């Protein structure tokens, strides 16, 4: 590796990308900054990143990709909610938008590597490159990166993966960036400032979000709901209905515009159906005696599990400990210890019973 190897780094102007940029320079790399304008509230990021680049004396480029971002990431976010699923926009954005652009700009500016301020690590296992959890459990972002292909991972550098957030703040203080070290966290979803429901109301047509019925597990109408996209599986608060006992959202039916309610006990699951899975090494995921775990939501507890392949697109997951609120549209991300093995989307669970309660069940092999 050359002592001045060029690295294209995503610069938001925030605490994490600032620290990552400084670390790269200390490690002998020559960073080239790229700031993406993805939403109308991103002008502050551009000015902060540009100011930092001038201070450090490094190249800095700005990509105004707001229209493309809205057509891909934002449109998918809205569409998923309208169809009764709960999306992870970062999971959508990373492979199809953020890292794609980073790779394209890296090629344009003669950069071999790309870097970001994600709290994740990389590890090579059996000839395949895998993402590994960052050492800070409270900040680990491997969950959002499962769709990145090996071609991208081979170029990635994650300088913050071996640091805790508190260490990063101290690192910046030690280099004279006191104000930056004290700055707050970035928004969890970059284009939503407050409640996602307000965003949907602003960006959807009135006819897209209509009142419908809350129903019980036996189909009885319980009262009116305000619009299917305003609810998610496992939700208890803000339902706007009193049933005399705690009620939770169990299922969303976009076809009939109904929201099924039930008890917390109804949310428990022994299995789930996952679709669209991908892995750097499928044999590593489906074969062997290793102990797998799965995360079914960001910052959720990893659940011990076994998996069985249904076909090239679908798998069934058997939970080995208690799981609750399996939510269609969310990501199911699999791990062997800290090594992330791949992931998929939690599917509509209506087909699950057909697999488990038929002759097909005898063909399932869980590992």
From TrEMBL:
UniProt keyword annotations, A-Z: ATP-binding, Cytoplasm, Disulfide bond, Nucleotide-binding, RNA-binding, Transferase, tRNA processing, tRNA-binding
EC number(s) per entry: 2.8.1.13
Keyword check for Iron: no
Pfam families assigned: tRNA_Me_trans (PF03054), tRNA_Me_trans_C (PF20258), tRNA_Me_trans_M (PF20259)
Keyword set includes Ion transport: no
Localization (cell): Cytoplasm
The protein's role, per its UniProt record: Catalyzes the 2-thiolation of uridine at the wobble position (U34) of tRNA, leading to the formation of s(2)U34.
Protein name per its UniProtKB record: tRNA-specific 2-thiouridylase MnmA
Organism: Candidatus Avibacteroides avistercoris
Lineage, opening ranks: Bacteria, Pseudomonadati, Bacteroidota, Bacteroidia, Bacteroidales
